[in-house]
Specification:
Layout: E1 2-6, H1 10-22, E2 26-30, H2 33-40, E3 47-51, H3 59-68, E4 75-79, H4 84-92, E5 97-100, H5 105-115, E6 122-124, E7 127-130, E8 133-136, E9 141-144, E10 150-152, H6 155-166, E11 171-173, H7 174-182, H8 190-206, E12 212-216, E13 220-224
Parallel strand pairs: 1-2, 1-3, 3-4, 4-5
Antiparallel strand pairs: 6-7, 7-8, 8-9, 9-10, 11-13, 12-13
């Protein structure tokens, strides 16, 4: 899962990114509302932590703009404001949850797990299900619902598999995958995507899944989920 932290307080933003990274999430940061808005519009993020008090656009304006564009990425509002009116405004604009500063990191992580159950794949407890594939988000284990076979994925394999499963039956370009799994600032080449897709195909075959990762010539890849 990839999370965007939109927070103008540098110390808190970096602390959140470190915590999320330590929990196995991919995390990027944005300092201003307009920067956050631009990054959200890329469609690369599965969840947004959005402060209200931001330069340029405040968090409520960012939320208003993305919802007006039909962007339904889950958003958890983070703010020092604690009045009922602020919470109601945020929820009316389409926020999925609301945390008042200061907050405990374990509570934030619990809220993230709860809100992230939205998505293309169905999440049951710690398992993401797409077609006959099951991905355990705690153990990085891939298995098939039709048998008892399972295999452990490496970190990048897991991140790629999760992205494919959450976007099953959609074509993802190599550029999208590279930015999503390796990040904007990474030195990864597009052939890294091909290599890791090859690894995942072997593991999907090992668990005897009927799902498959198909190549779309000149574009990228698509996870064709089996019917269940």
């Amino acid at each position: 899962m990839k999370i965007l932290v939109v927070e103008d307080e540098e110390g808190l933003r970096e602390a959140l990114i470190r915590t999320l990274s330590g929990e196995g999430y991919l995390a990027d940061g944005a300092e201003t509302g307009d920067e956050g808005y631009t990054l959200i519009c890329t469609g690369l993020y599965d969840l947004v932590l959005l402060d209200i008090m931001l330069p340029v656009y405040d968090g409520l304006e960012v939320l208003r703009r993305i919802r007006n564009q039909g962007i339904d990425v889950p958003v958890i509002m983070l703010t020092a404001r604690s009045t009922l009116d602020d919470k109601v405004t945020g929820m009316d604009l389409g926020a999925d949850d609301y945390l008042t500063k200061p907050f405990a990191m374990p509570e934030l992580l619990a809220r993230i797990r709860m809100v992230s159950r939205r998505g293309t794949g169905t999440v049951t407890d710690s398992r993401l299900r797409t077609g006959d594939l099951i991905l355990d988000t705690q153990t990085y284990t891939l298995s098939c619902s039709n048998n008892s076979r399972s295999v452990r994925l490496g970190a990048k394999e897991y991140q790629l598999m999760e992205y494919l499963m959450r976007n099953a039956d959609q074509v993802l370009s190599r550029e999208q995958i590279t930015q999503r799994v390796w990040g904007y600032d990474a030195d990864a080449e597009y052939n890294n995507v091909d290599v890791y897709v090859s690894f995942l195909r072997k593991k999907i075959k090992f668990v005897q899944s009927e799902s498959k990762i198909s190549s779309v010539r000149g574009v990228g890849y698509e996870l064709e989920a089996s019917a269940t």
